[in-house]
Amino acid sequence: MPGMQPPNGAPETPDGVQIDLISAGRMSNLRTMEKIRTILDSVHDGNIVILEDGLSPDEESKLIEVTMSEISPDGFTGIEIETYPKPSNDGGLFNRLMGKGSDNDNKLTVIGPANRIETLHKDENLISALVTRR
Amino acid sequence: MGLLTELRSSISRVTSKLFAPDQGPKRIGIYGPPNAGKTTLANRIARDWTGDAIGPESHVPHETRRARRKENVEIERNGKSVTIDIVDTPGVTTKVDYKEFLEHDIEKEDAVRRSREATEGVAEAMHWLREDVDGVIYVLDSAADPFTQVNTMLIGIIESKDLPVLIFANKTDLEESSVQQIANAFPQHETVPLSALEGDNMDEVYDKIAEYFG
Hints:
The complex is a heterodimer. Chain A is of the alpha+beta class. Chain A has helices at residues 24-28, 32-44, 57-70, 93-98; strands at 19-22, 48-51, 79-85, 107-113, 117-123, 126-131. A 4-stranded mixed beta sheet of chain A has the order 1-2-4-3. In chain A, strands 5-6 form a two-stranded antiparallel ribbon. Chain B is an alpha/beta fold. Chain B has 7 helices and 6 strands; from the N terminus they run αβαββααβαβαβα. Chain B has helices at 3-18, 38-50, 99-102, 108-131, 149-160, 179-185, 202-213, and strands at residues 26-31, 68-77, 80-88, 135-141, 165-170, 191-193. In chain B, strands 2-3-1-4-5-6 form a 6-stranded mixed beta sheet, sandwiched between helices. In chain B, strand 5 (165-170), helix 6 and strand 6 form a beta-alpha-beta unit. The radius of gyration of chain B is 20 Å and the shape is globular. Chain B starts with a helix and ends with a helix. Classes of the chains: A alpha+beta, B alpha/beta. Chain B: It comes from Halomarina rubra.
């Protein structure tokens, strides 16, 4: 999350990779632009964002549009993104981490800064990200 | 339903038909990732039916950085004609780095300008898709992997708008071409093989355009 501090005041690791797992509940209370800002502010900070429920097609379209408007030479170069449709009654690790089951078919989504993600690969049941250090 | 309500509903249906704006030609957006051959296809269609091209073609990604429109392209099939406006859009991506242009022997200043224009072009293409097209021709390079997130997202966006869509598996002239891989990636849509560069299978292309967008 933008400006999010490490828990318990732990020292920030300048060359580490922060991963923000954002719950469906948190996103569901946000408007489209608030969701996009939440994602892009975090990605601008070099973080990897994992959305429990992903975005709607219209929100994805706006995410691409806003991402394009923020690209700058020698700065932000855009995003890498991969999604997974989640089957109903998914009792997987992510849901256990989030403390809830899923009763919809929304998409687990991984988003990161293009200039830090070397590869973002998806196969049948695995998204694998190779992230460079800062 | 009460008599008055039914009467009001009937009058509303009649007046909406009477005063509906002239529909005009349907605007068909040509979408797809960079370097799929969108402009080559747009030029092929425009040249075949109007004699004019739409824009320059290039192997350099993001050569098309503004949506270009060719109006009133009249395609004749089986004694009938269908008139469409073709909108050739910039290749959609989620990232643009000017350094990629440097690999094509383009100077930095020009590369930075191209990348800025490319980002504006992608944003414009997304806006057209949300607001201003009546149907989509989705062009893919049949020699490239179709299972990309950009393709999945764009097809999802198109489907969410209930737009008619045809998937064109372009570049069948290449040895590595695999039309089946594209058909497997998007089995819910009809896939038409073609080579826009060589003009292969254009009869079926025009049959399908007339069928889907006529």
